[in-house]
Predict the 3D structure of the following.
Amino acid sequence: MVKNRDYPLYTLEEYESLSQMVCRKAEECETKVAFQYMRGKTIHSVTYRQYLDAILTTGKYLSEHCSEGRHIAIL
């Protein structure tokens, strides 16, 4: 029977927002895969740089096309 062992905890960097985390990761390892998704039977990979570009593009669009004080949900 396997006994429980005390393993050391990982040291994690703290972020104030998702965009802050993605910005930092894009600087450190922009060509690494941030996430993958499947469309049909094809697996698509998105790098940290591509993810950051998508976040910045979406933010720019929203700030240019949405009036202040409106609520927006992103799924």
